Amino acid sequence: MSLAELAGTDYVCIVQLTDSHLFAADSDDLLGLDTLDSLNSVVDLVLSEIARMDLVLATGDIAQDASELAYRRFIEASLQLPAPCHWIPGNHDDAAMMQRLGAASGMSQDWVDIGSWRIVLLDSSVSGSVAGYLADSQLQRFDDALATAGDRHLLVCLHHHPVDIGCSWMQPIGLRNADTFFARLAGQSAVKAVLWGHVHQAFDGERSGVRLMATPSTCVQFATDSEDFATDTLAPGYRWLRLYDDGRIETEVSRLPPGSYLPDPGATGY
Question: Which residue intervals define the domain Calcineurin-like phosphoesterase in the entry (predicted)?
Fold first, then answer.
């Protein structure tokens, strides 16, 4: 069944994987954690829990070292899932390399139409910067996606958080032009939700009727409500979303068993 043919099936199911931070070298790790192994374990969890998935979204920081091999490792892992995968870059990524590899594999798209929904994929990464910014070209992409969406509902995806999530140390490294972004969304009833990565923790809120969601990393977790950098003992995970034809969203975060893939407790940054 094609993506367009799913329009009459009541809902589509999307799986979000984010912040896998993969390396080229087998010996490399992130704060003592084997990120490829944890990603594969999360993929196995998805396969055990989700009987039907229609799309996979990877919302940035695919690679920690921005190497081609790391991206190819992610592609290999994503091919275990029985649904097409689309990705966007994060601050650790090489956006140009992702575009090149993604163009060849079909993973890089401006937006994807599936069922009664349009999934808009925005690149908030800025070369050499941890914080994010939506360039004029990305804001225009959103405008174009909205203008041509017809009766579809919109889910907008990016890497960086556009709102305060309650972690003081992360506030300066979010989306720097969030006000401009939200001004674009204002009054647009077709926009149902915004989805991001970057923060390595779950978040579920709302602003002016728009659902706002962040998702745990497939590797290291960051502590919620923290003043300074701090990791958490929660296990890696992913988010599933059911996007209904009438615009409703049902979603949940699922994690590996407690105690799985704990980072170095003495870590002070990465």
Answer: 14-201
* CA dist., res. 175 & res. 241, Å (int): 23
CA 37 to chain centre: 19
Multiple choice CATH, 4-255, 3.90.1170.20, 3.60.21.10, 3.40.190.10, 3.10.129.10: 3.60.21.10
Q: In this structure, what token pair is assigned to residue 17?
A: 């994987």
Tell me the domain boundaries of the chain.
4-255
CA angle 15, 47, 196 (to 5 degrees): 20
Residue pair 28/257 in contact (Cβ under 8 Å)? The answer is no
Neighbours of 145 (CB within 10 A): 22
The Cα-based distances of 170 to 88, 93, 160, 200 in angstroms read 20, 18, 10, 11
Q: Residue 65 in contact with residue 28, Cβ under 8 Å? A: yes
- Stated pTM of the model: 0.94
Q: What is the pLDDT of residues 78-137, one digit of tens each?
A: 999 999 999 999 999 999 999 999 998 899 999 999 999 999 999 999 999 999 999 999
Give the Cβ contact number of residue 133 at 10 Å. 17
The residue written with tokens 């409500």 in the block is 225
Degrees, nearest 5: CA angle 173-203-179 = 50
pLDDT digits (tens, 9 = 90+) for 26-80: 999 999 999 999 999 999 999 999 999 999 999 999 999 999 999 999 999 999 9
